Amino acid sequence: MERLAAYFTDALRGLLEGAGGAHNHSKHHYNITYGSHHPRDDHHHHHQNDTLAAFQLLQDMSPYIKFGHFTANQAILEAVVHERRVHIVDYDIMEGVQWASLMQALASDKTGPPGPHLRITALSRTGTGRRSIATVQETGRRLTAFAASLGQPFTFHQCRLDPDETFKPSSLKLVRGEALVLNCMLNLPHLSYRAPDSIASFLSGAKELKPRLVTLVEEEVGSSVGGFVGRFMDSLHHYSAVFDSLEAGFPMQGRARALVERVFLGPRIVGSLARVYRTGEEVEERGSWGEWLGAAGLRGVPMSFANHCQAKLLLGLFNDGYRVEELGPNKLVLDWKSRRLLSAS
């Protein structure tokens, strides 16, 4: 826990220094291809090989990523059964690793009728420069090649957000007869931080677009009403559980854990505390995004028994400290001991 304390100490030091490190870090995006980059923060710029290696290690050391991907994909498969055309709009596609297993599942049944045509539209962000758009294009090429290797009918499109990263449903290219799914993975360690207004604009589109399903995965950091101190303690307890789970699963892999911490967790802690300090009140008012969707009038779709069993089987591959919690009919939560880490709904 010394490393965790060091990250929080650095984050607090940045806050005390005003417009220093924490303030700047909170504006940076960290993803599995590129670290943040700023002329004054070169020591936090991670080489592409480091970020890719850290992402793979995080997948191997923890169910953190696969839990959300597999739960969302199983819900999608169940929602679009017998459909001939499926259109998924992905809020933050990154490297597109979520969709490889979905394609394999769609293409796996060789005895029945051909699988549906899959179309994925990835949102790209003009406000973060060419790098974001180029990354999405490369993801599309990679997914197209993978689908071809499986014989899975597939097309890939991009939809650019406005410069302020807001989403307009009218910008989507929709085709009659497609089963539409909105997929939203939010603020997990390997993903970029996205502003609440941007997320709200995407999820608000669900009411206008009337999709077959909205899949949502988000961190369970807590929404304390105790002011900055309460929110700070929520963040501390959350990341303490994450660090503890990684150490318990791979106690002898100190260098591997250190890479994951340096590339993903450390920057997330710094940015998280900076946002808590400046804008934590809005979290108290909004609650979780799942609650926000419910308040907006969307009906929860119950998680199937198969999805619950799949989650338990996944956790069986990792340390005994993980467990699945069913929080209402449409929400599965990944816990580490007594602490909720993330939820899928």
UniProtKB/TrEMBL annotation:
UniProt short sequence motif VHIID, positions renumbered to this chain: 86-90
Major location category of this protein: nucleus
Region span, Leucine repeat II (LRII): 138-170
A Pfam family reported for this protein in Swiss-Prot or TrEMBL: GRAS
UniProt-annotated stretches for the region SAW: 274-345
Any GO CC annotation of this UniProt entry: nucleus
Keyword presence, Transit peptide: no
Cited PROSITE patterns: GRAS
Keyword Transcription regulation: yes
Region (PFYRE): 180-271
Subcellular location: Nucleus
Xref: PANTHER family: OSJNBA0084A10.13 PROTEIN-RELATED
Family: Belongs to the GRAS family.
Protein name, entry field: DELLA protein
